[in-house]
Each structure stands twice: as structure tokens, then as C-alpha cells.
Amino acid sequence: MAKVNVSLPQGTRDFGAEVVRKRTYIFSTIKSVFELYGFEPLETPAMENLDTLMGKYGEEGDKLIFKILNNGLDNPDKQQKIKEDFEKVLAGKNSSGITERALKYDLTIPFARYVAMNHNQLTMPFKRYQVQPVWRADRPQKGRYREFYQCDADVVGSKSLLNEIELSNIYATVFNKLGVSVEIKINSRKILAALAEICGGADKMVDITIAIDKLDKIGIEKVKEELAQRGLNVAQISIIENYLNITGSNEEKLAAIKQLIGGNETGAKGIEEIETVYRQSAINNLQFDFTLARGLNYYTGVIFEVKANNVQMGSIGGGGRYDDLTGLFGVPNIPGVGISFGVDRIYDVMEELKLFPAGVHTGTKVLFFNLGDAESKKAFALMQELRSKGIAAELYHENSKFDKQFKYAEKKQIPFIVIIGTKELETNTCNIKELATGLQETVSFDEMLKKFTA
């Protein structure tokens, strides 16, 4: 029989039990904090209509949307029309004859679509959280996948900066609970808009933010080259370079940004907003970062990004205010703000820094050895009693040698084994062995149940 090559698509992964348990620990921690702050769960479909997604993520983001081919492209009756539509696609245009749907790129745009469709039934302000996979046609590398989970929390129907203050505290609380040391970066699109106005007008906003958003990847000189290619002159590029070179403490950065763009009305408003969030949130690791751009077109105010300390990794969280988002779907005047957690990168950080608690690894707590028909029947009854008390337990599936059953327990990292042989069955006792220490004791059945359920 010919060998069958089995593989996964690039940028995707399988998750075994140990990884799933660790990821569940992250999900549960984040969800518990979302619930603590009054957010409600929501789920949306894996796919959206293509026109729902296109044009919402900037020119770079639109290139990364996974489009789904329509059914029926092999229909011979439509061959000529299909060829014409494919020519449009090859020319870089979209064609509804080839693709009308796409996998969702993030959770924010589908959420805005949901709000636009259901705003008359929602209690405002509406606070929702969402934990689902998203897909991006990106080049796979460390910390960057084509399929990955996002955990989002958003508030719509309120312009209050209290929301930004709470969201920054959600970030701080979650990462404190996970034991991950982070820097929470904050900026404002209004500050970036002011920079654009000073450098030639609001129409330069997209060009500037796209270039700035690449600063960490390509460096300041390449950013300057890209700005020049996008039509900015030497004087304008010099202003942007001065802007990008603002450093120091938060107080020093505030003073510098006020001097540079504080005379601009939009800039002054943006500075006021980030200063309010900074002072009222009272988070030690909240830092002003004016190089932060968040290259998504829908942001309008305060923006966030989270970076892990002590590890080489991209952002593990980000978000911001998007007051015009539902207007894209014909429902104007519903302000919103939200944040996202990059669970896959958070997992990689915690794994690299060995931050997962020991208990996260364990599923089954007790393994009953199988030493015969009568012995296994009693073991099964005791196992069911433990399970009824919430203790995860297993009975080995067949009467096998001790060595085989021990190895099963070791490979599954089951901490305790219970042995009931002929002698123990006659005396209503069992032997309990803790694998980590090798300690073994003989106790009654009742004492065994009490030991594991205490």
C-alpha cells in the first residue's frame, strides 16, 4: 500500500490534552475577569459576507482576508462568465461571481455587524465578550498563525472614558492573574490625526499610520523611505521623526507631545483623553507610546497595545475606540470601544517563561488498577463514588501487568493510583500510591473516599 502523506495546512495546529488544558486555563481566566466587569458572551459565524469585511482593515489587512470560493464554479453552463470573473480576481478586484463570503479576520467587525442588525433589542451600553477563532492569510512564523483565537471585550453605546479606564484595568487584572509581566501601551488616533493635519492634511492620516505601524518591523529609516514614497516632503518627515523620537517617563512624554501638537485642537483632545485614562486607571505598567498606530482604519480615539516583558514576542493584546464603526453598516451614532487578547501568543509566552500552575496539567486525579473481575467491579463502584463528588477518576481498561498500568498513569500524569487486589477485597481496604513521592499507604474504602474528597 502506498504511503499516505498526512499534514496540516501551514499556520494551523492540533492541540493535545496538555495544551488544551493550558489554553482552557487562559480562556477561563480571561472570561472570569470579563464577567467580573459585567460583560456578556456572544458568538458569531465563522464566515461573513465578503462586503461586511472588505475595506475595514486598511489596505494591508484586506490582503490577509481568507476568501471562500463560491459553489458551482465547475458549472459548464456558466464557464464564460466564470472565466471573466476570474480575470477580475487576477487583476486584484473582487468578484461576487467567484467569492461572496470570507472567514472572519477579527471579532470586532462581526460584532459591529451584529450590533447594527440588533441595536433596537440591545440594552445600551451593551457590554459583550467573545472567544472564537479567526483566520488571516498571513505568513506563518513564531507567534503568528493563520488560524488563532481572539478574546474580545467591547462596549457600545457609550462615549464615556470610564470604558477605556475599565478596559485598561481588565488588561492589568488578567495578566496579573496569569502571572505575565506586561507593558500596556496607550496612544490616541486623534493624536495621529493631528500629526497628519500638521504634515499636510487629514488625507495623509492613512499613509502616516500605515508607515508608523511598521516601525518595529522595519526601523525608522525604512519608515522615512516609505513616507517619502507616499508623497510626504522632507519637512513633514522631519516632524514625524521628531514625533517618533519622543521618549522618557510618562510625564516627560506628555510634556513633549503637548509641545509638538498641543496647539492643534484635535491633538489637544487626544492628549486630554489619554492623560485622563492614565491618571484615573492608576496602573503602574500603563505607558504612553506615540509610535503606536494600530493600522486598522476604524479606530477613532484611544488605542491600546500590550507587549509581554522578558520574551521576544509581538503584541499579545490590542484595541481602541471606534465611534464610527456601526455607521459602516447603515447604523450611525453608536460609539464603541474594545480590546482583544491574543490567546495563542499569550500561551507561547507562558510556556516559554514556565508560568502555568502545576495543577493545570492534570486531568485524571486517580487511576484504579484492574486486577481481575471481582476486583475491577469493586474498583468501578468506588470510582463512580469519587466521580459523583467531582473527582476525575479512571479504571484501567483491562487486567494487565502492574508495569503496563503504572506506565499508563505516568504518561497521563495521573498523581494517584489505587490498588485493590484479592487480599484488599477481603479486608475492604486498598493501597493508595502517590506517584510523585512513591509514598504508599493502606486504608479502608471509606478512608480512601474521604482522602480524595476532603
Automatic annotation (TrEMBL):
NCBIfam families for the chain: hisS
Keyword ATP-binding (UniProt): yes
Cellular location(s): Cytoplasm
Gene Ontology molecular function terms on file: ATP binding; histidine-tRNA ligase activity
Gene coding for it: hisS
Protein's name according to its UniProt entry: Histidine--tRNA ligase
Binding site for L-histidine: D106, L107, T108, R136, Q150, D154, R294, Y298, Y299
Swiss-Prot/TrEMBL keywords: Aminoacyl-tRNA synthetase, ATP-binding, Cytoplasm, Ligase, Nucleotide-binding, Protein biosynthesis
Residue stretches making up the Aminoacyl-transfer RNA synthetases class-II family profile domain: 1-346
Entry-linked PROSITE patterns: AA_TRNA_LIGASE_II
